[in-house]
């Protein structure tokens, strides 16, 4: 089975994950790895033109890592994870999407 993309995490994602308990963190890492090999909208879903989210439900909580694609290198698809949240409602907060969009814009300025 071929890996479809690499994942790079911005510091805010790493900090978010480090503040979770070990079992939750392992489940999220498992889903991140799984998303690299199989297409599953329950794990990696497009939420607007540029922003995607990695989705994990564990222990009756919904965890989201926001992300975007960096396809500047033709032979290397890269997904940049921007930040994470514990989702408390069914609707994704617009402020979190905006934050991911701002982080994306800042990423491509460099």
Question: If you consult CATH, what is the topology?
Answer: YaeB-like fold
Radius of gyration from CA coordinates: 13 Å
Q: Please give the domain count.
A: 1
Distance between the termini: 33 Å
CATH superfamily: RelE-like
Number of helices: 3
Mean pLDDT: 94
Number of strands: 5
Apparent shape = globular
The CATH architecture designation is 2-Layer Sandwich
Portion of residues within helices: 25-40%
Secondary-structure element series = EHHEEEEH
Structural class: alpha+beta
Beta content: 25-35%
CATH C-level class: Alpha Beta
Sheet with most strands: strand arrangement: 1-5-4-3-2
Poorly predicted spans: none
Describe the sheet with the most strands.
5 strands, mixed
Briefly say what this structure is:
This protein is α+β, with helices and mostly antiparallel strands and 110 residues long.
Overview of this structure, please?
The protein has 110 residues and is an alpha+beta fold. It has one domain: RelE-like (YaeB-like fold). It is built from 3 helices and 5 strands. It has helices at residues 11-18, 22-35, 94-109; strands at 6-9, 44-46, 52-58, 61-70, 78-87. The protein has a 5-stranded mixed β-sheet. The radius of gyration is 13 Å and the shape is globular. The model has no long low-confidence stretch (mean pLDDT 94).
Give the SSE map:
Layout: E1 6-9, H1 11-18, H2 22-35, E2 44-46, E3 52-58, E4 61-70, E5 78-87, H3 94-109
Parallel strand pairs: 1-5
Antiparallel strand pairs: 2-3, 3-4, 4-5
Keywords:
110 residues; alpha+beta; YaeB-like fold; 5-stranded mixed β-sheet; 3 helices; 35% helix
């Amino acid at each position: 089975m071929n890996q479809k993309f690499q994942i790079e995490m911005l510091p805010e994602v790493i900090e978010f994950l480090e503040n979770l308990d070990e079992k939750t963190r392992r489940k999220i890492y498992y889903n991140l790895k799984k998303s690299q090999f199989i297409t599953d909208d329950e794990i990696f879903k497009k939420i607007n033109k540029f922003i995607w989210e990695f989705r994990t439900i564990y222990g009756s909580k919904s965890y989201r890592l926001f992300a975007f694609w960096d396809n500047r290198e033709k032979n290397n698809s890269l997904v940049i994870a921007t930040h994470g949240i514990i989702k408390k409602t069914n609707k994704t907060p617009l402020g979190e999407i905006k934050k991911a969009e701002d982080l994306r814009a800042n990423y491509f300025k460099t």
